[in-house]
Amino acid sequence: MLRPLLIALLALSLAPAAAAAAVVDVAVTPAGGDVLGKSQTVTGKLTGAYGAPLVGRSVVLEARPYPFKGRQYKAVETAKSGLDGRFALEHVFDRNQRVRVTAPESPGDRSSVLPVFVFPRSALNFDLVRRNVIRLVQTYRTPKDIKLTAPTRFYLGKKGKQRIPLVAKVETEPVRAKGKQGKIKKGRFRATAVVRIPRAWKGQFRFGSCFPYNAGMGNPKLGCPKKRYKF
Q1: Which homologous superfamily is 2-118 in?
Q2: Which of 7, 97, 145, 208 is positioned for an S-S bond with 155, CB 3.0–4.6 A?
Q3: What pLDDT is recorded for position 180?
Q4: Any alpha helices (H) in the chain, and if so which ranges?
Q5: Where are the beta strands (DSSP E) in the chain?
Q6: Per-residue buried b or exposed e for 10-32, using 16+ beta carbons within 10 Å of the residue's own CB
Q7: What is the pLDDT of residues 16-75, one digit of tens each?
Q8: Summary mean pLDDT of the chain
C-alpha cells in the first residue's frame, strides 16, 4: 500500500518548479512630465515571495499612446533586473502615454498603469513694435499629427514683480511657410500678442506664457493661471 504513494511523491518532487510570481513596482521620472525630445525613465523593482528580489529577470516597458481608446500596448524598451531586483528603462516619448512594465518570465505579472506626460517643445520671445509696444511670440513644436487648438495665455508685469497679470488670450495657430496662404508646417504652431507697456515702467518688464493641456500633450492637472502668473 505504501509503494503507489511513494511513487506519487517521487513524481511530484521531479516536476519542474513553476516560475515564482513577480511583483512589479514602478515609478516614472520626472513624474510631472518633460518636453518633447527629452527622455523619461521608468524605474522599478521586481520581487517574489516574501519580498525577495528577483535577479536577472527580463522586464519589458510597454506604452499605449494618446488617444488611448483603440490603441494597444506595444513594447518599447527591455532590460533585466539587477542583484537587488531593481531596473531602469529609458525612452523618448512623442506624446502622452500610459505605460506599464511586464515580466515575461512570470506570465501575467505586470505593474500598475502609470501616465507619462509630454509637453510641446516651446520658446517665448518678444520684439519691439514701437515705443512702449511689444509683440509677444510663443512657438511650439509637436509630433506632425498633433493639432494644437487651445488658446495661449500671455502675462506681463513690471520688472521685479513676483506676480504678473494676464494681458492677452490668443489663438494658437499652425505656422505656414512664407505668407498667410503658404503650406502649413506640420507640428509647428505659434501664438502672437501685441501689448502696450506703461510708460511708468521705463521699458523694464517681465513676461510669461501658459499653454493648457491640449491634444493629448501636457499634464491635464496643470491648468493655466486665470488672472496672475507667479514666478
Answers
A1: Macroglobulin (MG2) domain (2.60.40.1930)
A2: 208
A3: 64
A4: 2-14
A5: 23-29, 34-35, 39-47, 58-65, 74-80, 86-92, 97-102, 114-116, 118-119, 121-130, 133-141, 152-158, 163-170, 173-176, 184-196, 205-210, 228-230
A6: eeeeeeeeeeeebbbebebeeee
A7: 334 456 889 999 999 999 999 999 999 999 998 888 999 999 999 999 999 998 889 999
A8: 88
Q: Do 2-118 and 120-230 have matching folds?
A: yes
User: Cell numbers of 200, please?
Assistant: 511708468
Q: Using CB atoms within 10 Å of the CB of residue 230, give its burial: 0 to 12 exposed, 13 to 18 middle, 19+ buried.
A: exposed
Instruction: Indicate the CATH number of 120-230 among 2.40.50, 2.30.30, 2.60.40, 2.60.120.
Output: 2.60.40
63 neighbors 91 (Cβ within 8 angstroms): yes
> What is the CB-side half-sphere exposure of residue 53 using CA atoms within 13 A?
12
Give pLDDT, residue 15. 34
Residue written as grid cell 513644436: 141
Q: Give dist(CA 106, CA 46) in Å, integer.
A: 11
Contact between residue 110 and residue 24 where contact means Cβ atoms under 8 Å apart: yes
The whole-number pLDDT of residue 69 equals 87
Enumerate the domain spans of the chain.
2-118, 120-230
